[in-house]
Amino acid sequence: SNISEEVTSPPPPGTNKQIPQSIIIGVRKGGTRALLEMLDIHPDVAAAATEVHFFDWDENYSKGLEWYRDLMPYSYPHQITIEKTPGYFTSALAPERIHAMNSSIKLLLILRDPAERVISDYTQVYFNRLENHKPVQAIENLLVRNGALNTRYKAIQRSMYDVHMYNWLRHFSLEQIHIVDGNALIQDPLPELQKVERFLNLPPRIISSNFYFNQTKGFYCIRSDGRERCLHESKGRPHPAVNSTVLQQLRSYLHEHNRTFFRLVKRTFDWQ
Ligand code: A3P
């Protein structure tokens, strides 16, 4: 069949697999898939198909750099290879491991309102558990224990952006980490992508007609190479309504972390 021919067909002449020159390090539920797919519109970008988990999973990291490179797509020498693994941002070891591979790599970090991110994270786990016939809990039961915010809940810990950023800035300069505003990418993708093109020194090739708003999905979708496509249905799911007192507890807790984060990155975001 065509499919098996495709699998065994040789790579295009002049291409090979390159170690990424840029990595989308997170954050989980920040809009990492949208960012990668939208960057892939660019003719000079070769995007890895799957999340690689090389730098955050010991069993993968121990397989070595050639194992990692082999997972990358075939690309031409003028192209930039990009992979995205959202778990890197919150991984204790990923920063020094990435630095050891390439100390001048360009890192992309897409962030959205950290309280919204918690709810999005919960929603993803909720649906995964439903699919796997595991019991689910109301979000309030995870967010609050004995009346206090449960700051050991993983989804909350991942939203303490300052804690993780601090770890990255021990190894990389601020100039090497471009932060994409995930809320802005949802509202109007082009300006955020143009900033990324500049950061990566790519010629401007992504244009407004590469995007169209899909009313049914409620999000922008991609028009490229004569095809139109939206992200998978698991991207852009409705969130549960959260008890307003609990939400206020979450927001006021994250507020201090946000302020520290703004100081660290010398930039502010209009997270509520
Ligand atoms: P929700 O599903 O909670 O709305 P990630 O790819 O890192 O898991 O991020 C998923 C999030 O990307 C979605 O979270 C959604 O808000 C956001 N997103 C940004 N642009 C999108 C787009 N064009 N289509 C769908 N989701 C998009």
From TrEMBL:
Keyword set, alphabetical order: Disulfide bond, Glycoprotein, Golgi apparatus, Signal, Transferase
Functional description taken from the UniProt entry: Sulfotransferase that utilizes 3'-phospho-5'-adenylyl sulfate (PAPS) to catalyze the transfer of a sulfo group to position 3 of glucosamine residues in heparan. Catalyzes the rate limiting step in the biosynthesis of heparan sulfate (HSact). This modification is a crucial step in the biosynthesis of anticoagulant heparan sulfate as it completes the structure of the antithrombin pentasaccharide binding site.
Residues of the active site: 29
Protein name, as recorded: Sulfotransferase
Cellular localization per UniProt: Golgi apparatus lumen
Reactions mediated catalytically: alpha-D-glucosaminyl-[heparan sulfate](n) + 3'-phosphoadenylyl sulfate = 3-sulfo-alpha-D-glucosaminyl-[heparan sulfate](n) + adenosine 3',5'-bisphosphate + H(+)
UniProt-listed Enzyme Commission number(s): 2.8.2.-
GO terms of biological process kind: glycosaminoglycan biosynthetic process
InterPro entries: NST/OST, P-loop_NTPase, Sulfotransferase_dom
UniProt source species: Oryzias melastigma (Marine medaka)
GO MF assignments: [heparan sulfate]-glucosamine 3-sulfotransferase activity
Residue ranges, annotated region (Disordered): 1-18
Family, similarity comment: Belongs to the sulfotransferase 1 family.
Top-level taxon of origin: Eukaryota
Annotated GO CC locations: Golgi lumen
Main location: Golgi
Bridged cysteine pairs (disulfide): 221-230
Domain Sulfotransferase: residue ranges: 21-253
Pfam families: Sulfotransfer_1
Gene3D superfamilies per record: P-loop containing nucleotide triphosphate hydrolases
